[in-house]
Amino acid sequence: MDIANKVLLIILDGASDRPVNGKTPLQLANTPNLDKIASMGISGIMDTIAPGVRPGSDVAHLALLGYDPREMYTGRGPFEAAGAGIPVKKGGVAFRCNFATRRNNVIVDRRAGRIRETNELIKAIQEGVHLDVGFVFEKSAGHRAALVLRGDGLDPNVSDSDPKHDGEAVRSIRALKPEAERTARIINEFTKQVESILERHPLNVERVKAGKPPANTILMRGAGTVPDIKTFSEKYGLKGAVIAATALVIGIGRICGLNYIETKGATGGTDSNINSKVKNAIDALKKHDFVLLNIKGTDEASHDGDAEKKTGFISKIDEVLAPVVGLKDTLVVVTADHSTPVVVRDHSADPVPVMIAGPGVRADDVRAYDEISAATGGLNRIRGVDLMPILMDLINRTEKFGA
Ligand code: ZN
Ligand code: ZN
After folding, report:
1. Range with the lowest mean pLDDT among 136-140, 185-189, 286-290, 342-346?
2. Ligand 1 center to residue 16 CA distance, Å?
3. Residue 221 CA, ligand 2 centroid: distance in Å
4. Please, what's the largest Cα pairwise distance for the chain?
5. Same-domain check for residues 143 and 179
6. What per-residue confidence (pLDDT) applies to 360?
7. Which residues, by Cβ under 5 Å, contact ligand 1, an ion?
8. What is the pTM for the complete model shown?
9. Would the pLDDT of 1 be above 80?
10. How far is C-alpha 172 from the chain's CA centre?
11. How far is the CA of 224 from the centre of ligand 1 (A)?
12. pLDDT tens digit string along 53-111?
């Protein structure tokens, strides 16, 4: 049949770049499979939010799923919380948390020596803190955790307590709008109780004896409300799944109603088990209409400013993508959520290359997957929120506008 009925959306996180000595990592990498997909399909470039806007991974992924972040995004907290496995409900206010080390009132280690064994500390906080509202506090990866406050009259417009740098004082959380004053008060009370529990916790006493930094405070940031949105299946009538390693992307998938499929050995780094992730994605297409596969190591290499590592990892991704070339009845879409140029070591607003291959697609003359080749393709320049409508049309699932 000449119509696809499934979509595999592959997001190479931050893979898009600027030239380093004349060429981008996507141009330099050895990518026969990605280039084959480009030859079979239609390419273009995409501003995931808008020209000149530097996107975070969260808002970019939301836009690529067709949710306009400008309408529903208040902060990263709820997505991290959902990714950490907290059942988030509409209206709750969520925060990202770090266990940290404080001496007097100064942060000496924002990650408390990258402490991993936080289960006991988390349990003590769950049992020992008492607030005027309900709360859920859960472990996330490594030294991280997530907090959700539940109750009436909560407001996400509060500042962070995380100073973002060692050597600075813990900030008390302030209301950024008058209606958030109660929330600020509650969260400062939470911190105060947490600190008194952590200070005398046996695990921290042990750590100090062993010369390790105690996890004696919690820094909070990214306050946000769990958005009230249609699920992916309500919005599109498609059953979707997400395959990712980072809590943020998993949480975005969950909040949008995608099933999270876990992959053993997926780390979010360049050491990740990406072969299994790709296999899982292909497998997931048997039971789902739509699968989002995020591969994160490209972004990590960029933040490290390591062009060689990034280029090598892209070549490795290409190898494991061999089985998706020409996948039956499926639109194979490859893109990035934003550019992360290795020379910038952070996200930039440069548009990302995007390509769509599969039955019915009007293939163009583009023969390679990179930023420069894609710019000459038939998709021209689109925005992130345009992608889902284009894909829905290609699988014949859109309503006609007009008569
Ligand atoms: Zn990203
Ligand atoms: Zn990044």
Report:
1. 136-140
2. 10
3. 17
4. 76
5. yes
6. 94
7. 13-14, 57, 299, 337
8. 0.91
9. no
10. 27
11. 19
12. 999 999 999 999 999 999 999 999 999 999 988 888 887 899 999 999 999 889 999 99
Euclidean distance between CA atoms 387 and 258, whole angstroms: 17
pLDDT of residue 105: 86
Residue 372's closest CA among 357, 356, 350?
Answer: 350
Say which residue, 141 or 380, is predicted with more confidence: 380
Q: What's the total number of domains in the chain? A: 2
Residues spanned by the domain of 294: 6-73+228-394
Ligand closest to the CA atom of residue 55: 1
Q: Is residue 368 part of a domain?
A: yes
Identify the burial level of 143 via C-beta atoms within 10 angstroms of its C-beta, where 0-12 means exposed, 13-18 middle and 19 or more buried: buried
Ligand nearest to the CA of 336: 1
Alpha carbon distance 399, 109 (integer Å): 54
Counting ligands in written order, the one closest to the CA of 337 is 1
Ligand 1 mean position, distance from CA 26 (Å): 16
Ligand nearest to the CA of 11: 1
Distance 347 CA to ligand 1 centre (A): 8
Please enumerate in sequence order all residues whose Cβ is within 8 A of that of 18, keeping only pairs 6 or more positions apart, or say none. Answer: 24, 339, 341, 343, 344, 348, 350
Q: How far is the CA of 337 from the centre of ligand 2 (A)?
A: 9
What's the pLDDT tens digit per position in 343-392? 999 999 999 999 999 999 999 999 999 999 999 999 999 999 999 999 99
**Domain CATH code at residue 19:** 3.40.720.10
Find the ligand nearest to 14 CA.
Answer: 1
Mean pLDDT to the nearest integer, 146-156: 93
Domain-terminating residue out of 224, 252, 270:
224
Identify which has the larger pLDDT, 84 or 19: 19
Do 261 and 192 lie in a common domain? no
Question: Rounded to 5 degrees, what are φ and ψ at 139?
Answer: -70, 145
Structure tokens given for 17: 């770049």
| Euclidean distance between CA atoms 338 and 182, whole angstroms | 36
User: Which-ligand-closest: CA of 246?
Assistant: 1
